[in-house]
Design goal:
By secondary structure, the chain is an alpha/beta fold. Bound molecules: pyridoxal-5'-phosphate.
């Protein structure tokens, strides 16, 4: 008797131990998955996290680190058992480990020399996922997509940026439709960040001397697949209170805040890489904000290698790649001589150059004492390879900066272009991926930057394509209804208004999306120029149309806020209440829902002010048709049968004339082309012509405007030339 009891007891004990062991192991595996943002482009891992607690998942902004912090290993184990998730978690964990340990074929065959000389990529914002709010819009999402594709392709790259504990603002509209900004402290322990450490395992603190004191920053490490992103944060002991807040907001504060942020990301960024033991072979400045980095690289060469300023300058420029994004002069950062001397003075001493020489690096005309210091000029002068972000933007940029190269004719200004693209695994709906999986070559997901694989779209059964699209559209409309009714509740509107919001929009109606920053040149209200004509289009009894708008205006941009207000207040106009909605707080999550579910993605900027634009690229991947002015990427993408063009691609010297022409064109394209084609159903209820255009669009655009293609272009055209060459000739 006693013996059998013993056995029983010990069995229970063992089981208890192995259960808690398994609980610990499972928790550890989930946490490992959550702490590398690789999961953000793995639909099955996203679904895993969601299933653990669908409601909290949504409430926590799809943040798995936050989700896991609310749950004990034991509780998690119970949940995993209930849902039988063990093998899926094990499999996801194994896939992550494999992903991190292999070096993809593409990099082994194409990125050669970068293996020992990684690329250091600098950007002021990174849009990786909605749960890590350190981005404001297009520039950040581009940086995020660049890192993700570099990771997938295996390009050796580390990234540098800032950590903003309040990020960019959250947008709410009040009763009058006026934008209000809310800043929320992000709790760093709820983010996938860890302190970066030096070779001895001690947290890194970098220091930057200025004429008015020392600035310190700690360094966070964020893992994005194989790419490490280092984020500097001035909230450290030893900084005065003002400096502790220096990096709390993205694009907040005055010009002095701005130059100090740029000092931290540029000079501090180079020092941070050095402290973690990384020796980059190439520096890529994504926009001029981080251009001070080159001065610090020159200082290293002078201090460490004894080079003269002249040689340090030449060698640094050779290994520097610069991408410019801003087609208007006013958009480029400029600082006066006082700010430059205050912040760069000590660095200038080490460079052994005069104040005037330093100022000259940021001036078009070095001898013009009245010219302020322009970050773009610094970046252009100090980089061997410069590029714009679309073919048209390249032409505009060469024209804008031809003064810098007065000895050359404009076409020979050494600024090329690499057109932006989007990270397909991030933006492609998983339902669409399943469809592509069935019809594309089996290895298409590894070869998504190649045109051939996308020919598979013509094999897809049109009925299946349409059905998949309708599923996604229905999802979008549920999302819109949820958000719009939440917006009404927040404004404490009457019950009947909230009730109406729950049924706003109609899944059978042609749905057009417009999601972007509300800058005036993007002309969000072009469509409203003739309200009666718009009314006729939207409320046509047989062929109605509806619109979903979203976007933030910069906090200081009053005209931008007025555009939002005008659109938001259409909900009070009975003609438009059921046909036009405004979703607050446009971010990666809102964008993803919109681009995956709309029929048409609208973009009508005033040419040539849209450098590239990328949201339309996300939409076409998912089968939406792009209707856009021939600006940015669309100017080189539209071929007559893969979407719709607004305007003829010319612009009048007087922009009011251009606007009037484009308005006319916008209405005509809608009335005569888009609406009739969408509603031209065959006997099976399929809009055959429309489906054909979807296929043309997917096959001709998806690969070309992918971030894989973009990163491959950077490797071939910029990184490899920057990494090689000069050192051999220097002997
Ligand atoms: C893709 C994206 C953008 C950029 O879109 P544009 O076409 O350049 O306007 C901006 N914001 C978010 C949240 C995005 O996801």
């Amino acid at each position: 008797m006693a013996g059998s009891t013993d056995t029983l007891m010990s069995k229970v004990g063992e089981q208890g131990i192995s259960n808690s062991l398994s609980a610990e192991t499972m928790y550890h595996k989930c946490l490992t998955l959550a702490r590398n943002l690789w999961w953000t482009w793995q639909p099955d891992v996203i679904n895993l996290f969601r299933e653990l607690d669908p409601i909290r998942w949504r409430q926590l902004d799809h943040n798995p680190v936050a989700l896991l912090s609310e749950i004990t290993p034991e509780r998690l184990e119970i949940r995993i058992s209930e849902l039988s998730l063990h093998s899926r978690i094990n499999q996801a964990y194994r896939r992550l480990k494999e992903y991190l340990s292999e070096r993809p074929l593409w990099a082994r065959t194409h990125a050669g020399v970068l293996g020992s000389k990684p690329v250091a990529y600098f950007s002021l914002e990174y849009g990786i996922h909605e749960s890590v709010p350190i981005y404001s819009g297009g520039l950040g999402v581009l940086s995020g997509d660049h890192c993700k594709s570099a990771s997938d392709l295996g390009v050796p790259l580390v990234a540098v940026g800032l950590f903003y504990d309040q990020g960019y603002f959250k947008q709410h509209l009040n009763h009058d439709g006026w934008q209000e900004e809310e800043y929320i402290d992000v709790r760093v322990e709820k983010l996938p960040l860890e302190l970066a450490t030096d070779e001895e395992g001690k947290p890194i603190i970098i220091q930057i001397e200025t004429r008015t004191g020392v600035l310190k920053a700690k360094v966070w490490l964020m893992r994005v697949g194989r790419v490490n992103v280092y984020l500097l944060d001035t909230d450290v002991d030893g900084n005065n209170p003002e400096d502790r807040d220096l990096t709390s907001r993205l694009y907040g504060g005055d010009n002095r805040t701005r130059i100090r942020q740029e000092l931290v990301v540029g000079v501090g960024g180079v020092r941070a890489l050095r402290a973690v033991g990384i020796k980059p072979g190439v520096y890529h400045l994504n926009e001029g904000h981080s251009a001070f980095a080159v001065l610090e690289v020159m200082r290293e060469r002078i201090t460490d290698d004894g080079l003269s300023f002249h040689d340090a300058f030449r060698e640094t420029a050779h290994s520097t790649v610069f991408t410019t994004h801003t087609p208007v002069e006013a958009g480029h950062d400029r600082f006066d001589a006082g700010l430059i001397e205050e912040h760069l003075g000590p660095l200038r001493d080490a460079l052994k150059i005069s104040h005037d020489q330093l100022m000259g690096l940021g001036r078009v005309n070095p001898n013009d004492g009245g010219e302020t210091f322009c970050m773009t000029v610094l970046a252009l002068k100090c980089s061997h390879k410069s590029n714009a972000v679309s073919a048209l933007h390249g032409r505009v940029t060469r024209n804008m900066w031809s003064r810098l190269y007065s000895w050359r004719i404009e076409d020979e200004v050494p600024i090329g272009h690499i057109t932006n693209g989007v990270h397909i695994p991030t933006w492609l709906a998983w339902q669409m991926k399943l469809l592509y999986d069935r019809y594309f070559p089996p290895d298409w997901y590894r070869r998504m930057g190649e045109p051939e694989v996308w020919e598979g779209i013509f094999q897809v059964d049109p009925g299946e394509l349409w059905e998949t699209h309708l599923t996604l559209k229905t999802q979008l409309i549920s999302f819109v209804r949820r958000r719009v009714s939440r917006q009404c509740r927040r404004r404490e509107e009457p019950d009947e208004v909230i009730e109406m919001a729950r049924s706003v929009l109609d899944p059978t109606v042609l749905t057009i999306g417009f999601g972007r920053r509300f800058a005036t040149y993007k002309r969000a209200t072009l469509l409203l120029t003739d309200e009666e004509r718009l009314n006729r289009i939207l409320n046509d009894p047989h062929r109605p149309v509806q619109f979903i708008f979203a976007g933030k205006a910069h906090p200081q941009d009053v005209p931008g806020k007025e555009l939002i207000q005008r659109i938001a207040n259409l909900r009070k106009d009975p003609r438009f209440a059921q046909r036009i909605v405004f979703i607050e707080d446009y971010d990666i999550n809102v964008c993803r829902h919109m681009v995956q579910g709309v029929d048409v993605w609208l973009n009508n900027p005033r040419r040539p002010l849209e450098a590239s634009g990328t949201s339309g690229q996300k939409a076409v991947l998912n089968g939406a048709l792009h209707m856009s002015a021939l600006d940015g990427w669309w100017a080189e993408a539209y071929d007559g049968s893969n979407g719709f063009a607004i305007g003829s691609g010319t612009c009048h010297a007087d922009f009011t004339v251009t606007d009037a022409r484009d308005t006319q064109s916008l209405y005509e394209v809608l009335e005569n082309l888009v609406v009739p084609m969408f509603y031209d159903f065959d006997e099976n209820g399929l809009p055959q012509q429309w489906l054909r255009r979807m296929m043309n669009s997917i096959s001709s655009l998806a690969w070309r405007f992918s971030a894989h293609r973009m990163v491959a272009d950077y490797v071939r055209q910029a990184y490899l030339p920057a990494a090689g060459g000069l050192s051999s000739s220097m002997g």
